[in-house]
Amino acid sequence: MRCPNCNCRDIGKIGTNQYYCWECFVEFSVTGDQVKLFHVEEDGSLSMIGGELNGETLIVQAQEVQQIG
Ligand SMILES: [Zn+2]
Question: Is residue 38, in this structure, part of any structural domain at all?
Fold first, then answer.
């Protein structure tokens, strides 16, 4: 398992199919071939910053998708 954003191996598992990169501080979820990247905001919310589907990089506009904490 490598970070889809920076390709480093310093990955922590935070939930089912959910991981955190300690190198570039992004959260990402893996569902089959689909990888979604999230930026963790200062208030703890997550913003989707991009995703990868079938090897094709997909950049989406930042949007609040989930509230945690
Ligand atoms: Zn990373």
Answer: yes
Domain that holds residue 15: 11-66
The CA-atom distances, in angstroms, between 13 and each of 9, 32, 49, 61 are: 12, 16, 19, 25
What is the distance in A from the centroid of ligand 1 to the CA of 35? 13
Q: What is the whole-number distance in angstroms between the Cα of residue 19 and the centre of ligand 1?
A: 10
Domain count, the chain: 1
Cα of 69 vs centre of ligand 1, distance in Å, is 22
Instruction: Decide if 3 is inside a domain.
Output: no
**pLDDT tens digits for range 5-58:** 889 999 999 999 999 999 988 999 988 888 888 888 888 888 887 666 555 555
The alpha carbon of 27 and the centre of ligand 1 are apart by a number of angstroms equal to 8
